[in-house]
Design brief:
alpha+beta, 4 helices
């Protein structure tokens, strides 16, 4: 079972931010003394069972966590016992302000396995954030999903966005800003999904 802990990160300017996070499944058994000895998480774990689970713990006033991926992708990840499969400079962050709402969109390197995400969009939700993913689907080529610690909800097929602005438009049109995603096509005829890698380790 994952262990809820609190991490403190010192940001530029000396500001100390607390964040409740879930330790990785193997954190209690890790005896590593250097960062290089820590296991590399799979992209699926990082995106759906780490970042998406952390999003509701981040308050709007602490949006610095989402503006710079170094904090969550490297500092907090390694403090909980694993390394990200991505270098920080491989993750592109786009900030979009629209109708008084500011969202943070993370674009990852091209996914290879089923349900790995190309985009995560962090949307304000009752003072915190919710993360919506656009990933390679199991029954459709690209799908929208939202993950919690215990389950993953899918909302059907979506067009593959060419960039962060298109990602925002597609998710906004489907209702992401309201928290009520309209369903899309759930089965794509003739589609064959790539294999999945849902384990913790890369």
């Amino acid at each position: 079972m994952k262990q809820l802990i609190t991490a403190f990160v010192i940001l530029l300017g000396g500001i100390v931010l607390p964040l409740r996070i879930y330790a990785c499944p193997f954190s209690e058994t890790l005896s590593a003394t250097s960062e290089s000895d820590k296991p590399i998480a799979s992209p699926y774990y990082l995106q759906h069972q780490y970042l998406s689970v952390l999003a509701p713990e981040i308050e709007l006033r602490d949006s610095a966590w989402l503006a710079d991926p170094f904090l969550l992708n490297t500092v907090v990840a390694e403090s909980t016992g694993f390394r990200s499969p991505f270098e920080t400079d491989e993750i592109e962050v786009t900030v979009i302000s629209d109708e008084g709402v500011r969202v943070y969109i993370w674009r990852f390197p091209e996914p290879q396995y089923c349900r790995e995400a190309l985009y995560l969009m962090f949307v304000p939700d009752e003072g915190h954030y919710t993360a919506y993913a656009i990933s390679i689907g199991q029954l459709v080529d690209w799908e929208i999903s939202k993950s919690t610690q215990s389950y993953r909800s899918t909302y059907g097929r979506v067009k593959r966005p060419d960039n962060a602005n298109e990602c925002y438009s597609l998710l906004k049109d489907r209702g992401a800003l309201t928290g009520k995603i309209s369903p899309g096509e759930f089965v794509q005829e003739g589609y064959v999904a790539p294999p999945g890698n849902y384990d913790f380790k890369h």
